[in-house]
Amino acid sequence: MNLKQFTCLSCAQLFAILLFIFAFFPRKIVLTGISQQDPDEDRDLQHNRPFQKLVFVIIDALRSDFLFDAQISHFNNVHQWLNTGEAWGYTSFANPPTVTLPRLKSITTGSTPSFIDLLLNVAQDIDSNDLSEHDSWLQQFIQHNNTIRFMGDDTWLKLFPHEWFDFADPTHSFFVSDFTQVDNNVTRNLQKKLFQEWAQWDVAILHYLGLDHIGHRDGPHSKFMGTKHQEMDSILKSIYDQVLEHENDDDTLICVLGDHGMNELGNHGGSSAGETSAGLLFLSPKLSRFAKPEPQETHILPINGTPDHDFQYLESVQQIDIVPTIAALFGMPIPMNSVGIIIPDFLQLLPNKLASMKENFMHLWRLSDHHDDVALDDFTINDIYTKMHDIQETLTRSATNYNYPLLAVAFVSFLFTTIVAVYQLQRYSGPSFCHLHISSLSVILVSVILGVSTFASSFIEEEHQLWWWIVTASSVVPLFLYPSNAFVFARWFIMIACVRLIKFWNNSGQKFIYSNVMSNLLNQNPFWKWYLNSSTFLALIIPSARSQLLHFIVTTILVGLCFTYKISWEIVNGNQAEIPPFMQGLLTKMDFLPTENNLLLLARVFFQAWSIVVISRLALTKLKVLDKRYLIEDMKLYITVLLIFQTSSQNIGQFIIFQILQSQIYYFFQHLPTSLSLTSPSEVYLSSLVSLILQNFTFFQFGGTNSISTIDLGNAYHGVSSDYNIYVVGILMSVANFAPAIYWSMLPWSINYGSASSQNKLQTFIMSKMPAFTYHCIFGACLMTACIFLRFHLFIWSVFSPKLCYFLGWNLVMGLLNGWLPELAILFALD
Amino acid sequence: MSTKKRARKTVKKTVSFSDDTTLTTYQNHEKKNADHDRPPVYVRKTPLMNFPYHLVMLLYYYIFLSSDFNTVKLLSLLIPAQISYLVLQFNKCTVYGNKIIKINYPLALICLGVTFLLSFPAMLLTILFGAPLMDLLWETWLLSLHFAFLAYPAVYAVFNCDFKVGLWKKYFIFIVVGGWISCIVIPLDWDRDWQNWPIPIVVGGYLGALVGYTIGAYI
């Protein structure tokens, strides 16, 4: 197979994956049009509406326990209101995917989100998010000539046209490292635009992001959380005071909610209890005149934990229930696609509760494809509610449909590439097709083990365990292959100790979360963390001294820039106390003042310096100015520096372990026993297989999982200002998340290209790509089969679909971008 | 691969603690006269005699009878059972220099101590192969004790037969492989009691030992 054929095969594979994903992620059928009522009835309802003004406060990632739990909540005013009955509190279930954009769609339209919304949340430029034509309670407010003012997360302006808002002050949502300014930008408008112009608006929407940002940075138990709660609490108090101040104006409703929760790491996107349980609070002086919801009668807030730690405080409702509730409370028809149910406690406020309930029921009844009328008069209120809940459940479950012909085309073409890949893999390795050689056999074995595992959702969630299982099995192989002497045994012991240490570094998966892992220990002892990190940096510089002087100087500069940036980043983000004083002294000696702007500048200097070094190194080697013997080693070093730059501080120490582990593996590869009589293709295959196993293993041990919620965004914004370019951020994000995998993908370089002549090098390149390519083909074929067969599985959107996205990521980033570009560039320079 | 390697090697002339000489000697045994420096050691191929009945019973007890998988109690049953297996079955199948040697009780006792001590390196290995590093240490040690005492007859045989580890290595390997394979049930989200650490690995180790002692003589 030559390069051209291999390129075609890779493109065909990628195309098949993209086609499959396009066909598999269904777009929901959305009813167009806007709900309308009979004009007389509408006027009547509007006249009698229980509330006139709505203040809709979204506090991003406000988990239920942040509002209600005595252990963690600092919302003291809220507790007081809940106890007096001025506020009614609920735990609301946020349908996964628990990320902001799909949640906002749900909260406003009342429909459940589809998985495609999750992807669009990341790629926000796509237009299909426009809700201006769709029905939502905002749309209904506009239809009824109410004025809406908005301040907060700019996601809202991606969903709704600017003209709908009488006043809008958007803030950026993706810049996660800042959590004070982003909220002050919202609060600064309160006085002027809401309080002073009280009569000039009907609906105010505030969306606070700071709490979510704290969660992403430090998790739910962060030291910043308490003050953030108090800040939010005092903002609510100031709004509520304004409501009370406007004398007989007790017809303002304040609705406070989190669009989703967060897990114990502070991330969200998945479907764990913490992520789906968001707090919900209705606040109005009017509410105290009606009966409190039942749990509030029996509990005194704040509550001291729930029995099962399942975040279910007070009454549990669906988050989409907000939509018909607001519609009913403001005398508007229920938005077209809403599958919500009016929260029962609010029935007592409605002027005609039976009519409202009947409307709600008929709405759901028609949505579930019934066209006949039902006589509801015979049913009690409870009966109707049970019926409505039944309908709601079916509607939220079956909100999807698939494009079967396209799925079939994609699947068959992927199967075709798989067969070609297996055939090619086999052809290289042995004398004949049927003669299975041990190297290609083990590639296929690993692929099949992983492939079969995709049929069980827990194996997808806990994929890191499978890789560890394979790592342990493959790490005993040297013991059987090499003569058993003390030297080999010592090497082997160092190797397995390194592997175990990497396994110890981070939690992965959903099932086992240990608190005693290296990253936690390092975060608790930040001085040790920075000593380890600085030794990692030193370990990069020292070996470069054996090469050319120029290389040594260049490496020192790059590493120095990287180290300075990493320290300054911590200082700017308020962790000054964590950095050992002498390292801070270094900064002052360099006359570098760590501020937000200087940080931006420093990161850009680093990226520019890095690109200049890499490009000139390649060019000078090509022009034969520099010795090409060291090219591979030097390039690996430069890339490692870049990877460290994109790694969080608690993971940097892993790279020193990587270096040690790598030297052991090189030893074993250089001293392959002659009795094995490996042909050169099998050696290439073996090194690629080891690289593949370690790529996946370390990817998970860096804290990666197969859930969208662990995508690391914290390192995607180095050197990126607020008006960011989505592609730059995308590339930085990929490098940050695949950093360990990129490191280990460089493992076979020195093994493969050490001796081969230039003609053979291209052939070796193709051969070294074959194992990973075949693995992805076999694994992908199994995954696609699993997705098709299990498409009605409960976890299809929370487990299988994210895995499909990760699979695309691995193929696109690791297979194509990282697999081809650097290696081909080096081969070109070596020629 | 390993058998191929062995076949190519020439017979070593030195006395060593390692492995391969015994097998080669045994393979060549019928042609040559017995070498008195290195007498042949092997396990007799008598399936009914070799079969570790007690392991089946212990497993049955552990899985179906014991309440909440009492690993400590299982260990207290395992140790006497292994001793009697050694005395009554295993030792009677071990051939050393063309004859079955009588059980050496003091050595068996010493080996008990050695096996106990072996549990510490076994624990180190278990941790290196993925047991929790800082949590559940007591459970991990229990597991290692089980592993060590499962290997007890083989340990005795190693001491009794001049440290010919090569022949007995497979018994250790079977136990480890059994434990390794059984790990696969841990990630499953069935939330059963028996998925708790170290229960599946204990069962896996027993199954590995069961297979090992049954077919060990034929490999």
From TrEMBL, chain A:
<keyword id="KW-0472">Membrane</keyword>
<feature type="domain" description="GPI ethanolamine phosphate transferase 2 C-terminal">
    <location>
        <begin position="399"/>
        <end position="816"/>
    </location>
</feature>
<feature type="transmembrane region" description="Helical">
    <location>
        <begin position="724"/>
        <end position="751"/>
    </location>
</feature>
<keyword id="KW-0808">Transferase</keyword>
<dbReference type="GO" id="GO:0006506">
    <property type="term" value="P:GPI anchor biosynthetic process"/>
</dbReference>
<dbReference type="InterPro" id="IPR039527">
    <property type="entry name" value="PIGG/GPI7"/>
</dbReference>
<keyword id="KW-0256">Endoplasmic reticulum</keyword>
<comment type="pathway">
    <text>Glycolipid biosynthesis; glycosylphosphatidylinositol-anchor biosynthesis.</text>
</comment>
<comment type="similarity">
    <text>Belongs to the PIGG/PIGN/PIGO family. PIGG subfamily.</text>
</comment>
<keyword id="KW-0337">GPI-anchor biosynthesis</keyword>
<keyword id="KW-0325">Glycoprotein</keyword>
<dbReference type="GO" id="GO:0051267">
    <property type="term" value="F:CP2 mannose-ethanolamine phosphotransferase activity"/>
</dbReference>
<dbReference type="GO" id="GO:0005789">
    <property type="term" value="C:endoplasmic reticulum membrane"/>
</dbReference>
<dbReference type="InterPro" id="IPR045687">
    <property type="entry name" value="PIGG/GPI7_C"/>
</dbReference>
<dbReference type="InterPro" id="IPR037674">
    <property type="entry name" value="PIG-G_N"/>
</dbReference>
<feature type="transmembrane region" description="Helical">
    <location>
        <begin position="599"/>
        <end position="620"/>
    </location>
</feature>
<feature type="transmembrane region" description="Helical">
    <location>
        <begin position="808"/>
        <end position="830"/>
    </location>
</feature>
<feature type="transmembrane region" description="Helical">
    <location>
        <begin position="435"/>
        <end position="460"/>
    </location>
</feature>
<dbReference type="Pfam" id="PF19316">
    <property type="entry name" value="PIGO_PIGG"/>
</dbReference>
<keyword id="KW-1133">Transmembrane helix</keyword>
<feature type="transmembrane region" description="Helical">
    <location>
        <begin position="549"/>
        <end position="567"/>
    </location>
</feature>
<dbReference type="InterPro" id="IPR002591">
    <property type="entry name" value="Phosphodiest/P_Trfase"/>
</dbReference>
UniProtKB/TrEMBL annotation, chain B:
<dbReference type="Pfam" id="PF06699">
    <property type="entry name" value="PIG-F"/>
</dbReference>
<feature type="transmembrane region" description="Helical">
    <location>
        <begin position="171"/>
        <end position="190"/>
    </location>
</feature>
<keyword id="KW-0472">Membrane</keyword>
<keyword id="KW-0337">GPI-anchor biosynthesis</keyword>
<keyword id="KW-0256">Endoplasmic reticulum</keyword>
<dbReference type="InterPro" id="IPR009580">
    <property type="entry name" value="GPI_biosynthesis_protein_Pig-F"/>
</dbReference>
<feature type="transmembrane region" description="Helical">
    <location>
        <begin position="196"/>
        <end position="218"/>
    </location>
</feature>
<protein>
    <recommendedName>
        <fullName>Glycosylphosphatidylinositol anchor biosynthesis protein 11</fullName>
    </recommendedName>
</protein>
<feature type="transmembrane region" description="Helical">
    <location>
        <begin position="103"/>
        <end position="129"/>
    </location>
</feature>
<dbReference type="GO" id="GO:0005789">
    <property type="term" value="C:endoplasmic reticulum membrane"/>
</dbReference>
<keyword id="KW-0812">Transmembrane</keyword>
<dbReference type="GO" id="GO:0006506">
    <property type="term" value="P:GPI anchor biosynthetic process"/>
</dbReference>
<comment type="similarity">
    <text>Belongs to the PIGF family.</text>
</comment>
<keyword id="KW-1133">Transmembrane helix</keyword>
<comment type="pathway">
    <text>Glycolipid biosynthesis; glycosylphosphatidylinositol-anchor biosynthesis.</text>
</comment>
<feature type="transmembrane region" description="Helical">
    <location>
        <begin position="141"/>
        <end position="159"/>
    </location>
</feature>
